[in-house]
Design a protein that fits this description.
The chain is an alpha+beta fold. About 35% of the residues lie in helices and about 20% in strands. The strands form 4 sheets. A 5-stranded antiparallel beta sheet has the order 8-3-5-4-12, with helices on both faces. Strands 2-1-13-14 form a 4-stranded antiparallel beta sheet, with no helix packed on it. The two termini are about 45 Å apart.
């Protein structure tokens, strides 16, 4: 199906101002700080530059990107830079994909306590993998994991879960051997599920005891310790969803997966179909019907509410590396892994994690649309003046 050309930014521009007025006092500062950059992205508001072809002198104006990590237009270049760093870190071993998710009743608590419970979700998942992998009954090794938090489902509902990409093996306790996992099998899902449930509930109880959780509306009575314990009781024995997908077929598949998931936002512009009569239509996959593609139509206000529901708390890192992939010692640990695996050291790589957003900047110029020649930037302007009255800065010496 051909793309409509509709963008989330256009929905915000056409309906955002009225919706903000209607919901004054109910939007967080973080949500407002997401809307404004997306609305201004690649418009004269943010400034830009003038490009000219070296061969045919074709000229065009290009506006700056907002760089917001929730902006659908700004994430692909950030993902590309991030993947360049990850490519050099891949090991010649099978990679596994493990997903941890929360029961619906716990997701409700997470919605009002995002920073605390998103963090707890990621730390409980990381600890679960680390503890089970270190157990000699299962693997008996120290592993490394790249984790990506996602908070949405296909219809933009609130569905926090963590995707974990894990090399199939780890470093022996004495640091002298690489211990591979069994062919086609990483760790037992049932064991992972039970420990994840125990660790998360233990952490949740600790946050409640410390008074660090907030409860609103029908959940307000859960401030009481006994009421909270009763609320959690049914989930102590229920099955928590942890599943492991088939191992990736090779490093290229690992990178392709990471490219799709690491810097994805709640909905991509490519899924949008139309904006008409105040309603937004978009495509979604119904995984309960074998991934059948369907169309959902929402009022523009409801669409914006769902989109902004996935605004991350300020400073929250949704991409994390743990174990031997942790930022502080990644380079040294990966060198050890390659030595134990008997493979050549990487010629490039980094021990620092790339941020999952980019600052407002002009992208590298694309080739000339007329002749394919090289476009060069000859003038730059800021966004403090309307187009036609900007103050240019000549860059070509003329």
């Amino acid at each position: 199906m051909a793309r409509s050309g509709l963008e989330v930014a256009e929905i915000f521009r056409r309906h955002g101002e009225a919706w903000r007025k209607d919901n004054a006092g109910h939007l967080s500062l973080a949500q407002l700080r997401v809307m404004s950059p997306i609305e201004a992205c690649r418009t004269a508001i943010l400034g830009g530059h003038v490009e000219r072809c070296e061969d045919c002198a074709h000229t065009r104006i290009a506006y700056n990107s907002c760089g917001n990590r929730h902006c659908p237009k700004c994430q692909w270049s950030a993902a590309a830079r991030w993947l360049e760093k990850r490519e050099a870190e891949l090991l010649p071993v099978p990679y596994f994909h493990v997903v941890f998710t929360l029961p619906a009743a716990i997701r409700v608590l997470a919605y009002h306590n995002k920073a605390k419970l998103y963090g707890l979700l990621m730390s409980a998942a990381a600890d679960t993998l680390r503890i089970i992998a270190a157990d000699p009954k299962h693997l008996g090794a120290a592993i490394g994991t790249t984790m990506v938090l996602r908070t949405w489902g296909q219809t933009l509902d609130h569905h926090p879960h963590v995707h974990c990409i894990v090399p199939g093996g780890g470093i022996s306790p004495d640091g002298k051997r690489w211990i591979p996992c069994r062919p086609g099998f990483f760790l037992p899902v049932r064991v992972l599920s039970r420990l994840f449930r125990r660790l998360f509930l233990r952490g949740l109880e600790g946050l409640h005891a410390a008074g660090e959780l907030r409860f609103f509306g029908d959940l307000a009575p859960l401030q009481d310790k006994r009421a909270f314990a009763a609320y959690l009781a049914p989930h102590r024995a229920s099955k928590w969803v942890v599943y492991a997908k088939r191992p990736f077929s090779g490093p290229s598949q690992v990178l392709a997966y990471l490219a799709r998931y690491t810097h994805r936002v709640a909905i991509s512009n490519s899924r949008l179909i139309s904006l008409a009569d105040g309603k937004v239509s978009f495509r979604w996959k119904d995984y309960r019907s074998a991934g059948k593609s369907k169309v959902m139509t929402l009022d523009a206000g409801e669409f914006m509410r769902r989109f902004l529901m996935h605004t991350l708390p300020d400073g929250f890192h949704r991409i994390r590396h743990v174990g031997f992939l942790a930022n502080g010692h990644r380079a040294n640990k990966l060198s050890l892994c390659r030595k134990l695996l008997g493979v050549a050291p990487s010629v490039s790589g980094t021990d620092s994690d790339a941020c999952d957003h980019e600052p407002p900047s002009a992208a590298e110029p694309h080739p000339c649309p007329c002749c394919g020649g090289r476009m060069i930037i000859v003038e730059a302007f800021d966004g403090t003046h309307p187009v036609g009255s900007h103050h240019p800065r000549r860059l070509d010496g003329l």
